[in-house]
């Protein structure tokens, strides 16, 4: 259910990830689950759709687009100044001052009056979405802040499920264009470059949602995205290829979480339901109540996923991705895994042999009428996902 803005007590978001030890709290927080659910939901909404595909244009989405256009106009009004520095034009600070002064005002204009009590909290995420005025830089932490801003607008009920496609193809697409305008005009540096250890761009989310757009595309195969002609011809239709086109002039990388802000909407409260998305498969997410599923904490050894007695017998390869997996199948010691669309994985060998050491049952209920990753955010309609019950039976149940 959406947050009741008339009854909810909103607060100013503040940092809560202050050191490496806090990262685990973040990973187990309600905010993390809401963020994961939002990104997953938007990803599904644009699966196989072009950026120009027709979609619902609700009053709120239209107003949010006008808000971004207003911010873009400020960039036009505040010209860069002549200065000797190669990067970081100080005129950006004038732009940022205007954003700070008028950010809440333009957000109120974009949202119906019933949602205005949330604006002081949601507005912080908006104002943190366009870069840092001290360093005059921009990175994925700022991109994440805008994603959290949109997530909050969903959480309070101003944006609804039917707005999902427009949120990606129109609102987020225009936000990306605006941020690139800021980067070019004010020569903003990439925040926290990590060299070869990260993607070469100022943003990450377009790669996620953009790849979803390209699913089932009959004309563009994965190996074609690096072709300059493909990127140039299709940049306006697919976020991913738009990134590839822009990436030619952007060769920097960055860390994120340390600058995330938390309030009453996106909180650091421990999540009561943890969701794990199996990497690289069509299997449904696994939900675990009150705690992280123990197999998520297992450590892989030299290409093998360490399994324990909490892994369902017919899903034997859950776990963290090993850092040193062999580069070709002939070197891998993992049995071949085939997937069934939106179902559980099956192995070519007898799955029960893999988990023969299991000594207790694990009942993991998936997709009970909604995507588990959605947490309380924007629930999907019943029937969107098949129901499944993954069970491990053991003859030694009574001994545990």
From TrEMBL:
It is found in: Cytoplasm. The keyword Transmembrane does not apply. Its EC number is 5.2.1.8. One of its GO terms (molecular function) is protein tyrosine phosphatase activator activity. The lineage of its organism: Eukaryota, Metazoa, Ecdysozoa, Arthropoda, Crustacea. Keywords: Cytoplasm, Isomerase, Rotamase. GO terms for cellular component: cytoplasm; nucleus; protein phosphatase type 2A complex. PANTHER family: SERINE/THREONINE-PROTEIN PHOSPHATASE 2A REGULATORY SUBUNIT B, SERINE_THREONINE-PROTEIN PHOSPHATASE 2A ACTIVATOR. InterPro entries: Phstyr_phstse_ac (IPR004327), PTPA_C_lid (IPR043170), PTPA_sf (IPR037218). It comes from Chionoecetes opilio. One of its GO terms (biological process) is mitotic spindle organization. PPIases accelerate the folding of proteins. It catalyzes the cis-trans isomerization of proline imidic peptide bonds in oligopeptides. Residues 328-344, 352-364, 389-400 have a biased composition (Polar residues). It catalyses: [protein]-peptidylproline (omega=180) = [protein]-peptidylproline (omega=0). This is Serine/threonine-protein phosphatase 2A activator. Residues 322-400 are annotated as: Disordered. Belongs to the PTPA-type PPIase family.
């Amino acid at each position: 259910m959406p947050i009741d803005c008339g009854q909810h007590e909103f607060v100013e978001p503040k940092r809560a990830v202050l050191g490496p030890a806090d990262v685990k709290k973040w990973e187990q927080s309600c905010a993390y689950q809401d963020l994961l659910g939002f990104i997953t939901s938007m990803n599904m909404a644009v699966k196989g759709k072009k950026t120009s595909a027709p979609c619902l244009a609700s009053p709120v989405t239209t107003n949010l687009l006008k808000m971004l256009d207003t911010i873009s106009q400020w960039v036009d009004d505040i010209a860069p100044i002549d200065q000797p520095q190669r990067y970081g034009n100080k005129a950006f600070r004038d732009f940022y001052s205007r954003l700070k002064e008028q950010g809440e005002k333009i957000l109120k204009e974009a949202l119906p009056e019933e949602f205005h009590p949330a604006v002081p909290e949601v507005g912080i995420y908006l104002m943190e979405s366009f870069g840092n005025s001290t360093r005059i830089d921009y990175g994925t932490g700022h991109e994440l802040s805008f994603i959290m801003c949109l997530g909050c607008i969903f959480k309070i009920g101003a944006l609804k499920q039917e707005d999902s496609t427009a949120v990606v193809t129109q609102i987020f697409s225009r936000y990306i264009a605006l941020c690139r305008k800021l980067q070019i005009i004010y020569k903003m540096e990439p925040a926290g470059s990590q060299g070869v250890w990260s993607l070469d761009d100022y943003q990450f989310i377009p790669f996620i949602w953009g790849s979803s757009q390209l699913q089932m595309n009959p004309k563009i195969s994965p190996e074609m995205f690096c072709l300059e002609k493909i990127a140039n011809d299709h940049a306006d239709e697919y976020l991913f290829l738009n990134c590839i086109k822009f990436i030619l002039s952007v060769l920097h990388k960055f860390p994120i979480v340390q600058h995330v802000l938390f309030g009453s909407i996106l909180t650091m409260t421990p999540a009561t339901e943890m969701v794990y998305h199996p990497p690289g498969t069509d299997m449904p997410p696994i939900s675990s109540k009150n705690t992280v599923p123990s197999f998520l904490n297992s450590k892989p050894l030299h290409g093998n996923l360490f399994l324990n007695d909490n892994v369902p017998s017919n899903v034997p390869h859950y776990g963290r991705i090993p850092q040193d997996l062999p580069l070709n199948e002939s070197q891998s010691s993992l049995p071949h895994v085939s997937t069934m669309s939106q179902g559980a994985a099956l192995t070519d060998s007898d799955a029960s042999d893999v988990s023969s050491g299991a000594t207790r049952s694990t009942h993991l209920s998936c997709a009970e009428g909604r995507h588990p990753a959605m947490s309380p955010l924007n629930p999907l309609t019943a029937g969107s996902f098949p129901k499944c019950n993954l069970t491990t039976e053991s003859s030694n149940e009574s001994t545990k």
